[in-house]
Structures are given as structure tokens and as C-alpha cells.
């Protein structure tokens, strides 16, 4: 085997090994979500009443009350858990305008799984959801 053939063979093996390492590295980049519920009358949307977030790095979420209207801000997050079951968690901010509540502690959504985040505002615990907004992300 001459030097040129040895160099080509070594380069081919090195390139193949690098490709295997890259192929075996999982993609860890999820998609974060920020979605807002706006109070809309007729055609114009007057103000932001509630805001929800999903942070893919750590599988955390939160909901914030953004308007002093006496209503609570609520959110839901739906995903397929590690057992293959669909799970929906609810969270609500009841502390008035500017208050936020965090969730997701101890939850591990499998990487690459879709999450559906909904946010709304409502009057009291049994109130009707108003101005529901939906967004999608990836864990």
C-alpha cells in the first residue's frame, strides 16, 4: 500500500467515525411557547388579560395575570408522558394583576414530544373560559 492509499483510507475511516458520532448525538433543542389571551370586543382587542409560557429546557411552565379585571388567569398544558399516556395539567394565577404561578416541577416530558399550551381568563373558579388562545411547542 502506498502513502496516497494509506492517507485516503485513514481519511475515510476518520470521516465515517465523525459521522457516527454526530448521528448518535440526540437533538436536545425544544421549542418554547409564549401565548397571550386578549380581551376582544367586536373587532378590536383591548388588553392582554393572561399570558402563559412553556420553557422546554427543564419542562417548566407558568401563567401570569396581566390585567386588573378581578378575573383569574388560567392555563393548560397537554402532552404525551413517558408512559405513552396523554396528560393535561392546569395552573391558575389568582393573586391579581401582575401575579404569576409556576408549574412543571418534577415533570419530565420526553424530548421531541409536542406540547399544547392554552391560556384564558375567567371569573372565579367555576367561571367560563374567555378569550382562549392556543400555541404549540416541543419538549
Give the integer mean of the pLDDT values.
Answer: 84
Fraction of helical residues:
10-25%
Q: Output the number of helix runs.
A: 1
Physical arrangement of strands within the biggest beta sheet = 1-2-3-6
Morphology call: elongated
- Low-pLDDT ranges: 3-25
Instruction: Give the termini distance in whole angstroms.
Output: 51 Å
Strand content: over 45%
Query: What is the H-and-E element order?
Result: HEEEEEEEE
Care to count the β-strands?
Answer: 8
The largest pleated sheet is described as: 4 strands, antiparallel
Structural class: alpha+beta
Radius of gyration: 23 Å
Layout of strands and helices, then pairs:
Layout (H helix, E strand, L loop, with lengths): L2 H22 L8 E9 L2 E12 L4 E6 L6 E9 L5 E8 L6 E4 L10 E9 L7 E9 L1
Antiparallel strand pairs: 1-2, 2-3, 3-6, 4-5, 4-7, 7-8
Describe it:
By secondary structure, the protein is an alpha+beta fold. The chain has one helix and eight strands, in the order H-E-E-E-E-E-E-E-E. The strands form two sheets. It has a four-stranded antiparallel sheet, with no helix packed on it. It has a four-stranded antiparallel sheet with strand order 5-4-7-8, with no helix packed on it. The radius of gyration is 23 Å and the shape is elongated. The termini are far apart.
